[in-house]
Amino acid sequence: MNPFQKNESKETLFSPVSTEEVPSRPLSLPKTPPPKICGSNYPLSIAFIVVNEFCERFSYYGMKAVLTLYFLYFLHWSEDTSTSIYHAFSSLCYFTPILGAAIADSWLGKFKVLSLVGLSLIALGTGGIKPCVAAFGGDQFEEKHAEERTRYFSVFYLSINAGSLISTFITPMLRGDVQCFGEDCYALAFGVPGLLMVIALVVFTMGSKIYRKPPPEGNIVTQVVKCIWFAISNRFNNRSGDIPKRQHWLDWAAEKYPKQLIMDVKALTRVLFLYIPLPMFWALLDQQGSRWTLQATRMNGNLGFFVLQPDQMQVLNPLLVLIFIPLFDLVIYRLVSKCGISFSSLRKMAVGMILASLAFAVAAAVEIKINKMTPPQPGPKEIFLQALNLADEEVKVTVLGDENNILLEESIRSFQKMPHYAQLHLKTRSQDFHFYLKYHNMSVYTKHSVEEKNWYSLIIREDGKNIYSMMVKDEENKTTSGMTALRFVNTLHKEINISLGTDVSLSVGEDYGVSAYTTVQSGEYPVVHCRTEDKDFSLNMGLLESGAAYLFVIINSTNQDPQAWKMEDIPANKLSIAWQLPQYALVTAGEVMFSVTGLEFSYSQAPSSMKSVLQAAWLLTVAVGNIIVLVVAQFSGLVQWAEFILFSCLLLVVCLVFSIMSYYYVPIQPQDLQEPADKQIPHIQGNIINLETKKTKL
């Protein structure tokens, strides 16, 4: 007889589980009911948890708000590299919760991980905090207060976005409005979020005496992995047709593991299977801090009453979340319910995916509109050249060569503002250009070296008798973080020191010295203090628009102080940053329907012993989503609007797959997670228990 068939006899119905079974432990709950908030059914302990989450999210999102621009403008990485590193960091933050969840559910418990591990080591702490804090708040409620627990997750998400709202507004101001060593103060922008982590630790610890602290239930992650592995290997070893089939593939672990653990693993795997399509949603949502911020740098942040920095645009997301959560909970969902439509959690998540997909379609349309308003870039074996005539009379400029002749059809008048750059073709990547200058009765031949894909200015000057020219490379990067780039040409015979702000100053050499580009905040500059070795004076530079690059020529004025002649090298951003509002509104509505619902869904479907594990698995989908963005940014090679369309279409396909999977998913009720009392082995009486003991000895 097959030995496996023998195990199916009635005797084995009472055979014991292995010694790996986790012994049950009583919950460490207060004997008296926990204190409530103002006579409601909400435990007072959740107030400390929510405030702690506010501070921790302030720290996290405040740091992330300036991270992309830190990579781009401080470390001088490319846009693709900055995007990739940003999402690699985000992915790591959402991978570590797996470790935090294992520690929380297995050894230390959620409270100790939060206070001792998570908040002490910020780098790894996000892995300790993320999977524990939401589930720990849910643990504060009794089962009879399930409705209040559902509303807690909305309040919890409100605290996340309140912290995010304030931090994404303040930290860009700390970066841009404060100068450190003559540059944007990234040290302060990162330091303030660090301080909030200390406050989070203090607040969370204050509520330690009133928390309900369910104890850890053994090494759950290891138990789950071993149970699954044993079920698979046992099924493979007993694949004969003579062996009776079992209802579920995990039932093949019954010879070694307790029935309750098998039931918990069944519930876990059903939800994990449903999580497979979710990373694509996060791939879109998390691009607010990378691709959408980079898009904002090419837009005009001047709203008339306030100048919005590109990284401050992210403040719309938490602001709209604070508006949308009560709007959806109190108005939209209730109206849908009154219409007789069953709007389950999974249906809400599917609608959230559709809204996020539409948001990226709108972002693609905005990107196309920006491209139409952006000056063309010089391609391979091309340069863009403008001529600036600083002489007293007009000058005729001719480029000598086969393909490039007269630079402009008409002569260039003195201090004439050029209407546009001229496109010149090169025979190699770098070459010498020969110019013929005709000024009065003088003819001058001059030579200058240039390199492909660059912008240049040919500055022409005279000293009363002769005429000279010099070639200056112009600003080539238009995305100046919503700032304004400017440089100076000093026609005076003395060096000038120019003060552009508290910590921004530069010196320009005498006799047509040319300064490097300096970035400043856009806005009005009616009085700019300047100084030579024997004189102080001021310049009126007027309005400096966002995204523009300016050239100021400092010249002598008869019987007056020196003045500045202003020329726009690169036009300002014309498309208002307010055009990003529709895409932020759509993606935030999608986030409220997807993420808030998903948090509560993950908790309600998790077995009591594995709530942090399932929360960590939910966060793991965020990590995978960021990896998707990283791969696309590095290897797609698509222009930006096409990349947005790609993400939009991918999410629509994933939404269809998720909808089909959701249709066949049956939500688990709390009573389904516990084995019925009349079927539990410990309740069996008499000789059967003795038989179990004897079998254990054998």
From TrEMBL:
Q: Which UniProt keywords apply?
A: Cell membrane, Cytoplasmic vesicle, Glycoprotein, Immunity, Innate immunity, Membrane, Peptide transport, Phosphoprotein, Protein transport, Symport, Transmembrane, Transmembrane helix, Transport
What InterPro entries is this protein classified in?
Alpha/beta_knot_MTases, MFS_trans_sf, POT_fam, PTR2_symporter_CS
The family database entries (Gene3D superfamilies) matched by this protein are listed as: MFS general substrate transporter like domains
Say if the entry is tagged with keyword Transit peptide. no
| Subcellular location as annotated | Apical cell membrane; Cytoplasmic vesicle, Phagosome membrane; Membrane
Question: Where is the region Disordered?
Answer: 1-30
Name of the protein described by the UniProt record: Solute carrier family 15 member 2
Q: Which organism is it from?
A: Canis lupus familiaris (Dog)
